[in-house]
């Protein structure tokens, strides 16, 4: 990362985590009161082979459907352009953004990663079951839910998984700053992860919805990655994640280059992307665009809303084209289900999905699917791809550059 870009990243991240907003990693409008509203389209049937787990909140129904089979890149073949759209604190509330973006994904041949906040599976009256590290029982900086909200979120999780989307974790109480996740030990991270799993595996008991159908997956098997609140506490989280069998982490920030496998975990960090009309880049997330535009206010000058949404859309598109026409490094984008500045960032993300996911050689996938593809590649091919800088395509063309994994990496063109 260049000095100028690194400086911008640090400043924006510091501002993001210093501001006490619902932002830096909260999803679904935060607290309780989620309105259940049935999905208009007919829900997909739960697979017939069912092995209930625990109290029946979850069930093993076999391999996840609608997952592409990862294939090794043939010699001389240009890599596909991967784009990952991910959502921190995923849950369904009165805005119905979870269900909306599931529909957007379906219409545009995309799958996504939904990072569930475990407390969104816990009704307010049961909040004391959460034992956050270093905090009083029942504490949470993003609140809890109500029974109707849990039911609505469960339905979205069920449908999303059946459609091939990934259910990751944004953990639970979303504690940032002093005394927050940045201070947690490895053992405290393990406790937080265990509780995030537990809330998914016991939602029927905690809500009293004993006759509701289970989630069609074993969360112990399915949970393979996450993003830490405010991108804090990454070092100890990664140590815990490795011990627990996670496959990736997306809690960092890096430039648009090919990812690395670090001690068994893929570093699928978010990227620095251009801010059109400004002399710096920012993190590829709605929150960070907002901080650069309206500062601490989630509802800034209405006269600027349209321009701010366009700026985020165009910045993400600039990052996309930089990779698509250059080194083909995967583009990682983070979001929240929010209505900041009149909802312009939701509009921007939807427009990006619509414009990029149907283009030739583009695959809009979940983090798990990206990790599957990376695992399937010859490590020597990935090593060569990492020699390409931001926006750089092979000078001699892709066919020569990747003619043989054993060959010497060619020069790159800016």
Automatic annotation (TrEMBL):
Domain of life the protein comes from: Bacteria
InterPro entries linked: CE4 (IPR052740), Glyco_hydro/deAcase_b/a-brl (IPR011330)
First and last residue of the signal peptide: 1-22
Gene3D superfamilies: Glycoside hydrolase/deacetylase
UniProt keyword annotations, A-Z: Signal
PROSITE patterns the record matches: PROKAR_LIPOPROTEIN
Ranges where the record places region Disordered: 57-79
Family annotation (PANTHER family): CHITIN DEACETYLASE-LIKE 4, PTHR45985
Name of protein: Lipoprotein
Native source organism of the sequence: Streptomyces chilikensis
């Amino acid at each position: 990362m260049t000095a100028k870009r690194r400086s911008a990243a640090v400043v924006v991240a510091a501002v993001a985590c210093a501001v006490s907003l619902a932002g830096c990693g909260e999803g679904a409008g935060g607290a309780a009161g989620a309105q259940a509203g049935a999905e208009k389209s007919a829900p997909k049937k739960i697979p017939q082979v069912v092995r209930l787990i625990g109290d029946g909140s979850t069930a093993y129904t076999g391999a996840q459907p609608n997952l592409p089979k990862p294939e090794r890149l043939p010699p001389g073949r240009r890599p596909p352009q991967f784009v990952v759209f991910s959502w921190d604190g995923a849950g369904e509330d009165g805005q119905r953004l979870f269900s909306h973006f599931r529909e957007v994904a379906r219409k545009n041949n995309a799958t996504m990663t939904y990072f569930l906040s475990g407390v969104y599976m816990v009704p307010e009256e049961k909040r004391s079951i959460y034992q956050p590290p270093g905090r009083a029982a029942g504490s949470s900086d993003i609140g809890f839910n109500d029974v109707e909200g849990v039911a609505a979120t469960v339905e979205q999780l069920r449908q999303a998984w059946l459609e091939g989307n990934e259910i990751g974790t944004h953990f639970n109480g979303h504690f940032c700053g002093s005394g927050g996740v940045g201070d947690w030990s490895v053992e405290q991270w393990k406790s937080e992860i265990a509780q995030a799993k537990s809330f998914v595996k016991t939602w029927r008991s905690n809500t009293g919805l004993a006759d509701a159908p289970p989630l069609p997956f074993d969360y112990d098997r399915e949970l393979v990655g996450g993003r830490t609140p405010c991108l804090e506490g990454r070092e100890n989280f990664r140590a815990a994640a490795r011990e627990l069998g996670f496959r990736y982490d997306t809690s960092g920030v890096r430039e648009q280059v090919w990812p690395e496998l670090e001690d068994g975990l893929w570093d699928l960090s978010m990227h620095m992307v251009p801010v059109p009309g400004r002399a710096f880049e920012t993190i590829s997330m709605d929150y960070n665009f907002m901080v650069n535009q309206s500062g601490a206010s989630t509802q800034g000058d209405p006269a600027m809303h349209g321009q701010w949404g366009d700026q985020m859309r165009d910045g993400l598109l600039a990052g996309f084209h930089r990779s698509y026409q250059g080194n083909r490094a995967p583009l990682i984008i983070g979001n929240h289900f929010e209505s900041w500045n009149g909802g312009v960032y939701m509009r921007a993300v939807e427009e990006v999905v619509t414009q990029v996911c149907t283009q030739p050689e583009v695959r809009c996938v979940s983090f798990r699917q990206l990790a599957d593809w990376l695992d399937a590649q010859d490590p020597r091919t990935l090593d060569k791809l990492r020699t390409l800088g931001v926006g750089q395509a092979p000078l001699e063309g892709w066919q020569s550059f990747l003619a043989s994994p054993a060959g010497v990496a060619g020069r790159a063109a800016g």
